[in-house]
Amino acid sequence: MTLLRIKGLKRYRAKGRWYAYHRKTGIRLKAEFGTAEFIAELALIERKLKTANALPGTLGSLLASYRNSPAFTDLAPASRDGYGRMMNLLKPLDAMPLVELSSQFVAGLRDRIAAKHGRRQANYVMAVISVAFEHGKEHGIVSENPVKGVKRVKRARDAKSANRPWTLDECRTVISSLPQQLKVPVALGMFTGLRKGDVLALTKAAIRDGKIWRRTNKTGQEVSIPVHPDLAHLLATAPRHDAITIAATTKGTPWTESGFNSSFIKAMAALKRDGKIGDGLTFHGLRHTVGTLLIEAGYDLDTVRRWLGQKTLAMAIHYSESADTSDRMNQVIKKLDPLGSKSRT
Asked: Best exposed site among 15, 107, 121, 132 by fewest CB in 10 Å?
C-alpha cells in the first residue's frame, strides 16, 4: 500500500491503522491517515499554528505591550480605565497582523464605530490606537503610525456642546436641592473646577491655611485653590463623618466613582423631570463653569490654566470658550482705530 507523504507529519501504524503526529505542535491526529476527517483535522491545526505564529506581529500583541509599559501604567486611574475599555472594544481585532493595519483600514474602523457607538467613542478608539503605535515605534515593533493623517469625526454643527457650563440659576438650584452626601462633592467641583476623580479623592488634610491643595490625577499639576467663603460655610455645616475624604456617602465611607456616578445621575434626572434644570448638566460641566466665570471676571488664560491645573493654554481656552467677553470687547472697541481717526481728534 502506497501512502500519501505529507510534509511536517510523522506517520506511525497501530493495530493495523495508520496515524500521524504533527511535527511542529506534537499533536496526534485522531482521524485515520488519508481520510477526509484526517485532512480537515490537519487543516484546523495548520490554521491555529498560523494564527499563533502571527501573534507577535499583531494588534493584540502591540496593545499588550503598551498595557505593560510605564506609558500606560503611569496614567491616572481614570485614564487607564478609559484606555482599557477602548482596547477591550478592539479585542475582535487581536489577531490582525500589524502590516494589514493601514490608514484606510483605520478610517473604515473609525466610521463603523462612529455609526454604532457615536463620534466621541470613535475618536477615543483612534486616540488609543495612535498612542499604542507611537509606543510601538519607540520600541521597534512598528515603523509607522497608521492613525497619522486620518481625520477625527467632527461634531455636527447643530449638536449640543458636551459638558456645557452650568448657569448661575442651575448652580443655585442644584446646591439647594441635593442631599448632603451629594451636595458636598458637587460644591467642591463648583467652587474649585477640579475633576470628579480629584474631588472624590480630596482628603480632609488637603485643606490647609484656607486653601485646597491637590496634585491632579490627570496632569500631575499642583494646584492650591483658596476656599471660597460659600464653600467654607457649606463644609462647616455638613454632617460629620469618619471618612478620610471630605466627601462621603450616607454611611460615612469614601465615595467610589461608580457609586457617585449612579447617585449623581439619578438626582440630576429627577431635577430635570421637575423642570428645575436644563439638558446636559454634567459634573465635568462644572469645570467649564469655573473656566467661563474666571474669563468673564477678566482673568487671563494663564490664570485659568493655573487654577484648573492645565499644562497648556489651549486647554484653558477649551474650558472657557463659552465665556461672555462682551464687556471686554466694549473696552477694546474704544481703542481699536484701523483708520487712525481717533489719533487725529
From this structure: 15
Q: What is the CA radius of gyration of the chain?
A: 30
DSSP secondary structure letters along 37-64: HHHHHHHHHHHHHHHHHHGGGBHHHHHH
Q: Is 72 exposed, middle or buried (0-12, 13-18, 19+ CB in 10 A)?
A: buried
Q: Which of residues 196 and 79 earns the better pLDDT score? A: 196
Owner of C-alpha cell 467663603: 229
State how far the Cα of 245 lies from the Cα of 252, in Å rounded to an integer: 10
DSSP 117-181: H-HHHHHHHHHHHHHHHHHHHHTTS-S--TTTTPPPPPPPTTSPPTTPPPPHHHHHHHHHHS-HH
Q: How far is CA 297 from the centre of its chain?
A: 31
**Interatomic CA distance for residues 23 and 50, integer angstroms:** 14
Buried b (16+ CB within 10 A) or exposed e, 209-228: eeebebebbbbeeebebebe
- Which has more confidence, 321 or 37? 37
- Residue 241 in contact with residue 252, Cβ under 8 Å? yes
Instruction: Determine contact, residues 264/249, Cβ cutoff 8 Å.
Output: no
Say which residue the cell 480629584 belongs to. Answer: 198
- In angstroms, rounded to a whole number, what is the distance separating the alpha carbons of residues 231 and 227? 6
Can you give the pTM of this predicted structure? 0.61
Hunting for cell 492645565 — which residue is that?
A: 310
